[in-house]
Structures are given as structure tokens and as C-alpha cells.
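Archive entry: two folds, one per protein. Generate the first.
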Amino acid sequence: MLHSHLTTLHTISLILQLLDKEGEDSAEDLLAGSGIRLDDLQHPDIRITTAQEMRVCANARARRQELGLLLGQRMHVSSYGLLGYTLLSSATLGDALELALSYPALLGTYFELSLHHEGDSVWLQADGYRDLHELETFNTEFCLASLKLVCDDLLGRPLPLRDVQFKHPEPDYRASYAASFDAPLRFDAGRNALCFDAAWLAQRLPLADPVTHRDMRERCRQQNSEFVHHQGWVTRCRQTLASQLPAPPGLDSLARQLKCSPRTLRRHLQDAGTSYQTLLDELRFEQARQLLGQALPINHIAEVMGYSETASFRHAFQRWSGLSPSRFRA
């Protein structure tokens, strides 16, 4: 199942609105190390990478541990753009969920989502988490809270839950879960999932419209095809660069390896909302984080990553994360 390395600025905007409203942090502090500028928020068509999004999420979660739940409670079905309105026009809740799960790139999920029937119950399950380990609890809470809200929006009323399970341990802010999940909660469970009566899958949606749905579904298919095409170029670039990180090829050399012209490669990356330098920085940052988690001297990490001077590595890491390597490790 293809996921996207690209996403919109919607979640970033929600984070800034949420924490700015509470007067907890400046926007600049929350955007630190992401490469996202305040001016970018005035252009909703801009695409950012999921690595940029997760950088802001990490900054924000350091201030509010229950951030995933708070964001999930605000991710209405309309937040998903074209896909969201296509879901609203579906005939039944089951039809809408099957459609959503068939377009993970448009849904913007970090999980493999699936429906599992067990007797008269159905589990909406989130498996195969594929991002930073330190943000797994945040992303799980965000995912399940937003899925519950989407179901409520589609039905026009709350979807009654039978059970909610999480793989992570019970957090100190357990009381915050009540706003999203009015059901028994289980932590340290074997799965991340919402359980409800299977009969709800056949529930007709109040905004169902077969003519509109047919048109919107075709537009979703076209948008997904474009996403997949752009994602293919991003994935190939990332894989090629990752294999040569200590001595990365320049844009011209990378284009030759991908059998295209530098102009073509630059255009494909621009269409995907990224660039050669952005991808290279992301990969270097990922590797640096992994190495900093080991008991290695910073000068040795700089050498492994291909920096001739430790000061150059420190400067680059400060630019990527907003922190020095030693502070990040601490």
C-alpha cells in the first residue's frame, strides 16, 4: 500500500492555532528546524514533506504531551479536501470507510488502516506504523481520534464505540481520552483499534448523493494518480541518495543515475513540493538522529556523515532541528 511522503499544511496550521490560542509558544519556535516559514501558511496549495510535518509535531508535543488527541479532535472530514467531500457523498458508512482506506496517500496516514469483522463487531485498525519511534504514541492518538471524528461527521451523530485499544502504555493524561472515546479503554493491548457494532457499516449517510459521489470519486482517482506519480519520483530520489549519503551526488549526477535531465528532475521534485536539497537534508537528519542515539562522539558522527569539519556538521544539525547535536542527544 503506497503512502505519501508529501502532505498539506493543514496539520501545521492546526498546531499553530491550538498553541497560539493558549499562548504557549511562538510560531517561530514551533516551526524551528522544519524549513517551513510563516509566509508559507498563506499558501494552502503548498506541499510539505512528512518529515517537515513531524518536526513541527515533535516541537509541539514537547510542550503538550496530549497533542495527538487535541489535534485528532479537530480533524473534521472537511480537513481531507477532495477525499473528505467524496466520503460525505458516499451511500453508507461502510462504503465511505472502504473508500478512505483505499486512498492512504490522500488520507495522509502513517499507518496501514484496515477493517476486521469479529462476530457482530468490526474493528477499525491501525497497523504498520512507519515513522519516528518517539512520535508513535502521538501519531496513534492522532490517527484514532481523527478517524472517530470523521465517522461522527459522516453519520451526523456520534458513532457508539464498544471498545478502544492502544498498544502504548497508559499515559499520565488518560483523562484527555474521554473527549474522543466514550468507551472502555485498554492500553498495552495487542493492537491500535476502534471497535463498534458492525450494523453501523450499513447505515445510510445523511449527505449521500450518487451523482455527486460518482463525479467526486473520479476526481479522487485522478488526484491519487498524480500523487502516486509525484511520490514515485520522490521515493526514487530518496533511495538513490540514501545509498550514497557519505558522498552524495549532486543534482546533475543524480539525474543521470535516474536517466533524466537535471531540468526534468528539478521539475518533478518541484511538482511534488520538494527539492534536491530538501530531500538530502531530510536523509542526513534521519541518519544523524540515529547516530546520536548511539554512544558515539559527535566528531566521529560528523566524519561518518561525510563532514570534513565537526563545526560544519554542528551548524547543519542546528539548521535541521533547531538544536545543537549535544542538546538534541540530551
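Generate the second and append.
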Amino acid sequence: MPGDYLHGVEQFFLDDPNRPIVILAASTIGLVATADDADAATFPLGVPVLCNSDKLIAKAGTTGTLRNALKDIYRQTGAVVVVVRQAEEDVEADQIAEVIGGIDNETGSYSGIKALLAAESLVGVKPRLLIAPEFSQLPAVGAALESTAKKMNAIPIIDGDESGYSPVIAACATYQEAYFVNGGARLFDVDQAAEVGRYASATVAGHIVRVDNEEGYWHSPSNRKVYEILGSREIIDFAVGSKTCKANLYNSENVSCLVRKQGGLYLRGNRLANGIMLPHQRIRYLVGDSIMQAHEEYVDGNVTKGYVEFVTDRVNKLLRRLTLRKVISGGKCWVDKELNISAIGTSQVFWDYDLGFYDVAERMTFRQHVTDSYNQAIFE
């Protein structure tokens, strides 16, 4: 046909089958806070805004919780923060509703914690650590954080209300995939030129990001030093090897806290409220999301033998790379033959893969033996 005829040279650009799967960003913080006097152009109400520098603290106003939360995060490290600013309310019930926010199906607008669901669409990044300092200790706010985080494959950092051991343990037990922190933080606030106390979730979020930057998201943030704080608001005793110190009692019930040891303040606690190790859950989320994101462009392709092998090999290359980096102890992707044969005609293909996690050395045991055998050398 004349339309297909060519006397010369032509070129086709083919997809590169060796293009590696890229792991998504692990350390973006999603922050919901209040500040009526914040710069409205920088932090519009109910709209996710990308904050990647502590210079924006100057635009955060002085009322509400926004300024202090950003200061607590950036005191620990440089971080990328998605900020949702909400109005300050005098009545607690109104304030809770404002912080939780919602989705207006008529206008398509979001607000409060629910606005974090739209963060990736609006600012191009997905928050992975969700906080609402000075509000997350309230059950309704904590529940909203956890449910929103579940939809985003993110980790909510929820504050205990510091009301005493038993009620705090009971509060933690109401959550599942939340990193629950109790005890608050005492620190010196330059703006007030005085020591102040605040809930610890913003400080802990900044601390986790710092550990991510220095060691990797696959490492636990526990037993790492927390900088520029003076202590916890609640007195939490800690002693090496003690099963009955308050820090260990909290940790045994999946409550994390700040403890003083070796002349500094350290975060203590590895587990989510359901007992799963924090780094293990983060690896599951990030690897899973990265694999899905990397194959979105291959949806609607023809299911040929080459197509199935291409996806399998690509995932296996990622798992080998993660194994070499010591992110995981091993992993393998495979295709279940019987399952996929039974799915022929349904337009669905199944791939299975497993992940091996390194244990977190939460408990180190040294066994001491007494012997007189070394004394024999005296008489030789």
C-alpha cells in the first residue's frame, strides 16, 4: 500500500524491559494543624501544601499548632512535609470536626485529615507518616488518622493522652497499624524563651525521617538518640535489663516512649499497636506500592507468555536488589499455574511474591557461667 511504502531507513522506540522498579519515597510527613494567623497564600485552609524547608516556619503564624509542629519536625532533621492547615475553633467538638475534615462530593474539595488522601494528586507526593499533634490523643482524631493511613498505606503516629499507665494502655489497644507514643516531650522553645511541654508525635516523626535519611527506612527508629529535647512530660523510668521499669512495661504493651539513658534522650519502642514491627510494615507498604506503581503502564496488555515472564523477572530483579542492600533477607516472585489457568477468560493475572524480614534485635540475652577451671593454671 502507498501509505506503508518507505524507501529508506526508519526507527522504532521500544520499551526497555530492563528498566528497574523504583522504590517510592518513604519519609514524607503528612501534617494536619491549625493556625488562624498563618500566611493564607502559603498555607491555604484545607489544601495540602508541600513544605520542604524550615524557612516556611516564618509563614506558619504564631497561634494554633502549625508553627510548633514544624519546629519540632525540623529540630530533628530536614524533611518533606505535606501540610494541611485548618481553622482554630473554641469548642472542642467543633475543633475535632475541623481537624478530621471530610470530602465534599458536590465540589470535590477535601479538608482536614481527609485532605491527605488528595496530597499525591495535588502536590505530587504521598505522605507516609501521618500526624496531627495536640489532637491525635483525642480518640476520634486518632481513629481518623488510622483509617486514612490505612487507605494510603501510611503509618499514623498517634499520641497517648498521658493520663496514666492503665488508660494509656487501654487507648493503645483500640488501634491496629498505628505507632502509638506516650509521655510527651519537654523542650526549650526559643520563641517563648522557656521550657515547654508538647505531645511527641511531631518530634517522633522528624526523628523517624532522620533515621531514614541516615540508615534507611528498613531500620527501626528505636534506641536512636532524639535531639534537642529535655525529657518527657510523663516521668518514665528506664533501667538496662529491667522488666519492671515503666519504659519496658509500656513497650510490652506496644506503647513507645522517650527515655533518658547515657546522658541523652532516646526513642524506645519498635512495634505498632498490633505488635508488628514498624520497619517490617513500612517495607511491606513501600515494596507493594512500588511494584504496583511500576506496572500501572502495563495494564491492558495482552497476556502472552512473554508478558507474564517480563513482569515476573522485573519483580525478581527488584527483590534481588533489595536483598543485596540488606533491606530484606530474601524474596521471590512466581506465577501460580493452577490459579492463573482457572482465571483464563476473566482478564485477570496473578503474581505471587514473598519477602523475608531481618529480625529486629529487640532483646539481647547474655548467659553468664561461673567456673573454677581457670584457677587450675595457678598450680601448673
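Annotation attached to the second fold: The radius of gyration is 25 Å. The domain at 29-278 is CATH 3.40.50 (Rossmann fold).
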